[in-house]
Specification:
Layout: H1 3-33, H2 37-45, H3 49-89, H4 103-150, E1 154-159, E2 164-167, H5 169-177, H6 203-218, E3 226-231, E4 237-246, E5 258-267, H7 269-303, H8 310-344, E6 349-352, H9 353-368, E7 372-377, E8 382-385, H10 387-405, E9 410-417, E10 420-428, H11 434-442, E11 444-447, E12 450-455, H12 456-462, E13 466-472, E14 477-485, E15 532-539, E16 550-559, E17 562-572, H13 581-587, H14 591-594, H15 600-611, E18 615-618, H16 621-629, H17 632-635, E19 643-645, H18 646-653, H19 662-668, H20 679-699, H21 705-714
Length: 722
């Protein structure tokens, strides 16, 4: 049936429904004016009045049904299509309108989808051109990011308010090691973009250094750098070098203003202790031997007298012997102290085991001229070792084998055994006694033109390994087996924590120099400018007032409109009670996984520090906040910062959608959920949802935190059906 015919039919039906009562009334009036009409009205028409009333009521109901159907199929359908069009235009370009409803609406949906295809083709062309234009800039940015990530020195860049704008992985690792107490969640609360450097350094110390740099800038100093040494709250000694970040030079402006500062940090605690020990050793060598040398010299001079009695001669000789022994003892003790200091300075590095073996092979061939071959080398194994000293030990062992047993060649074998790596140095020839092996282990290493105060045992112990001798009787071979701990190539997050992210850790934010936390009152701050902590909890059950407890907290941060996946907080918690079977089915956390985990009293202070100075975000936030609020009395901590709920914000943006569950929202916004019902996985997808909702809220005139909170409050009762 065509649209015109359906329209005519609807008009006829509505006309009948609306004119029917008038027709009946006119008929009654006409009949009453005729002779005998009263009897006809009573005898004929009156019995049918209830039927007429029923038919009129049914017609009225049918009219309402028709109008409701028309409203649902056209008005409501077009409203839903409008929200879908908004998704296509902004948050989810791949979204397409479903072709359902009456033919006119289906035709409109087809036209809209066709236009979306054309729009996508044009956007792809524009994006390709923009990408080509940005390639050079991105290459420079990536070079800087790669350089920062590989530096062995801790580097932080801060704005003048002391907020961290950029840092490298070395700084993150060092800040965790500086913590006064054992950290939870891998120390995630200690450092991050947008955090204050004054949580680690005294504000007055930084201010003094900044004033010094400003003074040098005013005097046009070539190197306006400030250096200072300070102690952390954990007692570590840090040496810091501060350099200014200057504004870009502008034409006509002679002076460049300082917009921030760079901190380069070294933990010199161990170096200071070692230098103190070396100073003490030098003092012992000088002051301790000064008197001994004076005694030896005096005794030697007395022995020059020819008429000296033999008894006195023997006494002076004894003085010389005793003093020389004491000096020798002090020298030996100093040498041992120096060897210990040398061992303390060994750096451990992660490397491929195959690279270590190949380096040992090349070194033995080059230094000892002994053939070295490889057999059964597992190239997937990583080790964390001091490669220099370990190569020295392997070369030393090969040298002793060549000198004392005249071996013709050595072979290397590398294999894995669970969390250990077996490195075998193999040779064929004469058997060796255990006493010989022990003597080789305990002697200082000397071979070719090289020597070291260290022993093979020192090297093995420093690398957290073990070594022993084994024999292969069938093949008439023997080998030294060195067991080393296996290592991963680098610290990695669980792939389940990633959604659509890049491989490079997001430690860098080059736009934050323009950001100042003091620029607006928090309620008037734009949503795009705020710093967020997006979190989720897993619990033993759904009723905290009846004793259910948190068993996992996961959180991530959004700074300057960017999701910082690497700055995450994830910690299992011992609830001190059992888990319900229903909750285990949801989150998959078993009692065995919680054994030995810290209690909530230790975890909440760390999470509180992680979330300070930020807006809290959660999906169905009332549930998670209730668990936190019930712990306020026990911990003395209050989470009193503003809270936004992505469930309510979704209802504000899309009031006509059927569901506002996290999965439904993610599907509408073209987000992939990985790791659902893990605290960190849910927190990350909630953060992705928030970043998609912020521009959609702006389209509705909701730009600030205060506006978002008020809009969410108005949609509060809409949350009941979810």
């Amino acid at each position: 049936m065509t649209a015109r015919r359906r329209f005519l039919l609807a008009v006829i039906v509505l006309a009948l429904l609306m004119t029917g009562p008038f027709v009946v009334t006119a008929l009654l009036v006409w009949l009453e004016t005729r002779e005998g009409s009263r009897e006809l009205l009573i005898d004929v028409i009156a019995p049918h009045l209830p039927l007429g009333a029923l038919m009129t009521l049914m017609g009225f109901v049918m009219g309402i049904a028709v109008l409701r159907n028309l409203f649902r199929r056209y008005v409501q359908g077009l409203l839903t299509m409008g929200e879908n069009l908004n998704l296509m235009l902004g948050a989810n370009r791949e979204f397409r309108v479903k072709e359902d409803g009456p033919p006119e609406v289906r035709a409109l949906a087809r036209y809209v989808n066709a236009l979306a295809e054309q729009r996508d083709a044009l956007l792809q062309d524009v994006e390709a051109q923009i990408a080509r234009a940005k390639e050079s800039l991105e290459e420079e940015k990536n070079r800087l990011a790669a350089l920062m990530s590989e530096l062995t020195q801790s580097v932080l860049v801060c704005n003048l308010d002391g907020r961290i704008l950029l840092y490298n992985n070395r700084a993150r690792t060092q800040f965790r090691s500086l913590s006064q107490a054992p950290t939870v969640a891998n120390g995630g609360e200690l450092i991050g973009l947008g955090r204050s450097i004054y949580g680690v350094f005294d504000r007055n110390l930084i201010s003094h250094a900044l004033e010094s740099i400003q003074h040098r800038l005013q005097r046009s100093n070539v190197q306006p750098v400030a250096k200072f040494v300070t102690t952390t709250r954990a007692g570590h000694l840090l040496r810091a070098q501060m350099a200014p970040v200057l504004s870009v030079a502008q034409e006509g402006v002679a002076e460049r203003s300082m917009t921030g500062f760079i901190l380069m940090l070294d933990d010199i605690t161990r170096n200071f202790e070692n230098e103190s020990r070396r100073d003490q050793m030098l003092h012992t060598l000088t002051e301790g031997n000064r008197a001994a040398l004076a005694n030896v010299r005096a005794a030697a001079e007395m022995l020059d007298y020819p008429d000296l009695q033999s008894e006195l001669q023997e006494r002076f000789r004894k003085v010389i012997r005793d003093e020389v022994r004491a000096m020798s003892r002090r020298l030996d003790e100093t040498a041992n102290e120096f060897a210990d200091a040398l061992k303390a300075r060994w750096p451990l590095e992660e490397m491929l085991g195959a690279d270590l073996v190949a380096a040992a092979q090349r070194r033995i061939v080059k230094v000892l001229k002994v053939p070295a071959k490889l057999e059964e080398v597992d190239e997937s194994l990583w080790v964390k070792v001091d490669s220099f000293s370990l190569l020295q030990a392997l070369t030393y062992l090969a040298s002793r084998l060549s000198d004392e047993f005249e071996i013709r060649e050595v072979r290397f074998r590398l294999s894995g055994a669970e969390r250990l790596v077996h490195l075998d140095l193999i040779w064929s020839g004469q058997a060796m006694s255990t006493e010989t092996v022990m003597s080789w282990e305990l002697e200082p290493m000397r071979f070719a033109d090289e020597s070291s105060p260290l022993t093979v045992r020192d090297v093995i112990e420093r690398n957290d390994g073990e070594m022993w001798l084994e024999r292969e009787k069938v093949r008439h071979r023997a080998f030294f087996r060195i067991v080393l701990p296996a290592a991963l190539p680098q610290e990695e997050l669980d792939p389940a924590a990633f959604l659509h992210g890049e491989a490079r850790p997001e430690y860098y934010d080059f736009d934050l120099f323009k950001w100042s936390e003091k620029s607006h009152a928090l309620e008037d701050r734009l949503l795009s400018e705020l710093t967020y902590t997006v979190f989720d909890t897993e619990t033993t059950g759904l009723d905290p007032s009846k004793g259910d407890e948190i068993i996992q907290i996961g959180a991530t941060r959004i700074v300057n409109g960017k999701l910082l996946r690497q700055e995450s907080f994830e910690q299992l918690i011992d609830p001190g009670r059992g888990l319900s079977p229903e909750s285990v089915k949801i989150h998959g956390i078993t009692p065995d996984m919680l054994a030995g985990q810290p209690p909530i009293a230790r975890v909440l202070p760390a999470f509180h520090a992680f979330a300070q100075d930020t807006v809290l975000i959660a999906h169905n936030a009332a549930f998670d906040m209730r668990f936190l609020q019930l712990k306020e009395t026990m911990t003395g901590l209050r989470f009193d910062q503003p809270v936004l709920d992505t469930l309510l914000l979704s209802a504000v943006v899309h009031p006509n959608q059927d569901s506002h569950r996290l999965e439904a929202i993610a599907e509408r916004l073209n987000l992939t959920i990985v790791g659902r019902h893990t605290a960190l996985g849910d927190a990350i997808v909630t953060a992705e949802v928030l970043l998609k909702l912020i521009p959609l809220l702006a389209e509705k005139g909701i730009h600030t935190l205060g506006e978002a909170r008020r809009a969410a409050e108005k949609s509060y009762y809409a949350r009941v059906k979810y």
